Known about the structure:
CATH class of the largest domain: Alpha Beta
Amino acid sequence: MSGDSIQWRSAGDAVFTVNGLWWFGENGGDWMRLPKRARDVVRPDVWSLAQMPSGGRVRFRSDTGALKVKVLHGGDSIAMWHMSSVACAGIDLYVGPPETTTFWRTTVPASAGEEYECLYFENQPRVMREFTLYLPVYARLERLSIGTDADATIEPPSPFRMDKPIVVYGTSITQGGCSSRVATGFVPLLGRLLGMDVVNLGFSGNGICEPEMAELIAEIDAAAYLIDPVANMAKWSSQERPEVYCRFLEIIRSRRPDTPMILMTRSSYAAELFGARESADQMNAIVEIGYQRRKTAGDASVHYFDTRIVVPAGPDHPSVDGGHLTDVGFKQIADALAPLLAKLLTLPMPH
């Protein structure tokens, strides 16, 4: 793939389709998860995390025989002590339509302020394929360019099985901590299992159910909402916690009264085998309270999902640190959520 045979395009070019970043058009093509108008509405920590495009994807079909990307991150760091730079900032390439995609390769990020190039493949047969690029989960994305054969055809991707996305609100685990790659958290896994679009609104350490976040979430005309904030709700006192949580649900319901809503408990932590179970139960109690209040209010579309059963405490807890899950734990959650959502959305499971 010689330099003069490459055509470079911005990943935000109209020939590509961007999914998972609901306000991408409103934001003028910037790679962020909240609208720019929310900058002075949400807390600074939430705004900073919103610059990390977790859940964002660039999709297209092409007969290119080679594929490259140029990537520039922003910020000070693209790795953490419990997540590699590939896990935080890589851009995963999958091939195939939404419900049957296959992993091909990821990028090897450079430092946060250095633009780098990655060759995914070259010298491949010139046949039409469908591509999905999964964007970073714990790193900013200042610029992304896609390089194809200069004479390659580029077409729109296949449609998802539903027009509306699944919207997931929550914590660092929701955002993707600590998957081995950007596409192996439970949110992207769920999208692939169902062949559906997903919007990831997980905010590490900051999924605390502020009213302004509920208002923003309710802007999205979703196929379903998954509410997963329990791990961050220690911010509130035991008296405040259920009221904050229930008010959050009420705000969403005031605008989206009939959309399926799944209320998720926090997955079990490894330390619960050694005396931390009572504290965990106290935190998770808000989900039962919220669920019962919604049912009492006549909400026929609210559902309870006990993640503790799906990811129990045990001798080989699927986490890196006793709480943040590995790919194993994420797959357990996605595999359990997918049939529930398929039933609620009257979709046959594609796999």
